[in-house]
Amino acid sequence: MYRLRLFAIRHARTFEWIYKYVERGMVAMDPLFAKIGYNRVERPIALVEKGVKTLLFDCKMCGQCVLSSTGMSCPMNCPKQLRNGPCGGVRPGEFCEVKPDMKCVWALAWDGASRMRHGGDKIKEVLPPVEHTLKGSSSWLRVSREIAAQERDAMDAARETLAQAFPEARENEPSAAPLAAEPPNAVNQELKK
Amino acid sequence: MSDAHRSEVEPIGYVPVPEGYVSHSRLERVLRSGRFAVTAELNPPDSADPEDVFQAAQPLGEVADAINATDASGANCHMSSIGICALLTRAGYSPVYQISCRDRNRIAIQGDVLGAAALGVSNVLCLTGDGVGVGDQPGAKPVFDFDSLTLLRTIRTMRDQGKFLSGRKITRPPQLFLGAAENPCIPPYDWRPDRLAKKVEAGAEYIQTNYIYDIPLFEKFMARVRDAGLDKKVFIIAGVGPIASARAARWMRSNVPGIHIPDPVIERMEKVEKPAEEGKKICIELIQQIRDIAGVSGVHVMAYRREHVVSDIILESGALKGRKRARPS
Q1: Which of A176, B71, B307, B321 is deepest in the core (most CB within 10 A)?
Q2: Cross-chain Cβ contact A80/B101 below 8 Å
């Protein structure tokens, strides 16, 4: 809905905050998702994501959400689907070249980004073209899964370095410097602290 | 086949690019040597006759360091930009191959970039493209697989890393001088310099702007560009063009996307008896004013269907002042 979309951009700072916590929550649920199977949770989560984001942002389910880099203004609503800023045809009053009744998605994006804490920096990044194979899939799930995996890898790397730094301990008291990966649940308990 | 034949058909690309340059482009040489560059737009013919291209190029070649071959500008169908570039390189001109994201997807564009480079093209201009709705075939499917920035980054990757976007290797990368467009005189004004910075980040080495008729607005833009240090990172070539009449100006303003012509300019056109002459005069004055703005490296003349006046405009404006002209009588 166009009006809700404008509302979301006006409150981009709040949505940035909400998004941060939703993301943390989903990362925390990684062990559960892994247990059920990510391919099994994909559909229900994509459905929820679609509902929420269609209402708020006129989401097109491109599957690679960039809202936090675009001031909470979805670039898929740009008739040219530009991912990196406005085109050269914006009409006076910041209206769209193709749809004259709609505000330019990217003029709104810069407005939203300037209200956010990190949006101002993120909007300056050059984003890659849309990967059409991802259409319809859940971005939330993909992102949280990637973050969870990264955190796990970082944890393992730290443990490995520690074990290598204390080789004697590994020999005499292996439990003090374990090399094997911890079971996922235990790793997650560590992370929460 | 003897080796003599091979050397005859494969001269392009074997010459290494000089230190500090990215291409063999004449435009790049002119810009990097600090001279004021002149580029001009060629209006593509609606025919399959190469003679039409040569006729249009001839008056532009007298003054321009590079000739822009437009890619269905305004979403109107004409001879393709790659076709025009092929003809121009054969005739010894240095074209700017304009690529619009509107009509072709990433597979077609990356292939065309290699094709253009093989034909001797050494400048590209990466554009988003006008929406299909304003053109002569509004029912066409808008592609927009890339935007101008992802296109820039892709060609830069092809050139500098010798790879397609897929990671597949290119045995001989294209040597291209990368350009993009900017439109300083239309909204969102505050974000235009940021958008320019992003284009530089994506790979733009020169910028050709849309028409500038509003000097104060352009000066404001340039001040912010200088503050951000962008004029040191990218060559900015300001777009100008002669207006044929007040009516034409009004029509352009309301029908062609991204054109801003202030009312005083149109009023000035209305008052005179010979509007075409006045349009030329305004264009010359604009070039002279633009030349004095710090950070501007050249002008890009877009004379819609009036190529014959471009040479006069450039010579009268003094844009080529300081360049030696050898003309035996």
Answers
A1: B71
A2: yes
CB contact under 8 A, A87 and B128: yes
ipTM: 0.88
What is chain A's pLDDT, residue by residue, as a tens digit (193 residues)?
899 999 999 999 999 999 999 999 999 999 999 999 999 999 999 999 999 999 999 999 999 999 999 999 999 999 999 999 999 999 999 999 999 999 999 999 999 999 999 988 999 999 999 999 999 999 999 999 999 999 988 888 877 787 788 888 777 877 776 666 555 555 555 555 5
Q: Do B150 and A106 touch (CB under 8 A)?
A: no
- B142 CB near a chain A CB, below 8 Å? yes
B181 contacts in A (CB within 8 Å)?
88
3-state secondary structure of A95: strand
Domain range summary for chain B, segments of one domain joined by +: 21-317
Q: Is-contact B168 B108, C-beta < 8 A?
A: no
Instruction: Mark yes or no for CB contact A90/B102 under 8 Å.
Output: no
